[in-house]
Amino acid sequence: MRADALLGVEGIHVSAVAETTKALVLRVETGEDITGCPECGVVAVGHGRRLVRLLWAKRLWRCLDPDSPRATFTEDHQLAGSRAKLTTRAVAWAADALARFDTSVSALAHELGVSWHTVWDAVRAEASQRTVPRTG
């Protein structure tokens, strides 16, 4: 199933679907790509995947260059930045909700299933990028 068509996220596909009592859970992952080590550029080989929020099976890569300072690394995608705990869409949704509706960071954290600090750290960064200087 093409998650890029379903979710509007290019390069992501659904690898499994499960139904729980509360939700339909889609497991998504990136497709087959050639990736180079970010330190030395040598072509890397797949080294597994790491589950991240949304159950995204991020690909782990292992560099074959014995002299490279980085042995393994995890893929990145515009869906979520490096070490991000929330997707860019979730952060935008939370920032919009705080700006437009009578809601709280605690309520948004509950909806997203994460801690207050996780939401606030991401929303604070997003809000600082959106801030437009006041005139007059």
Topology record:
Elements: H1 3-7, E1 12-19, E2 24-30, E3 45-52, E4 56-62, E5 72-74, H2 88-100, H3 105-112, H4 116-130
Parallel strand pairs: 2-4
Antiparallel strand pairs: 1-2, 3-4, 4-5
Helix pairs in contact: 2-4, 3-4
Residue fraction in strands: 15-25%
| Through-space gap between termini | 52 Å
Task: State the secondary-structure class.
Answer: alpha+beta
Helix content: 25-40%
Largest sheet: 5 strands, mixed
Q: What is the count of DSSP helices, taking H or I runs of 4+ residues?
A: 4
In total, the number of domains comes to 2
Overall pLDDT level: 82
Question: Uncertain regions: pLDDT < 50 for 5+ in a row?
Answer: none
What is the compact description of this entry?
The protein is α+β, with helices and mostly antiparallel strands and about 140 residues long. The chain is about 30% helix and about 25% strand.
What does this structure look like?
With 136 residues, the chain is α+β, with helices and mostly antiparallel strands. The chain folds into 2 domains: 3-74, no CATH class; 88-130. It has 4 helices and 5 strands. The protein is globular.
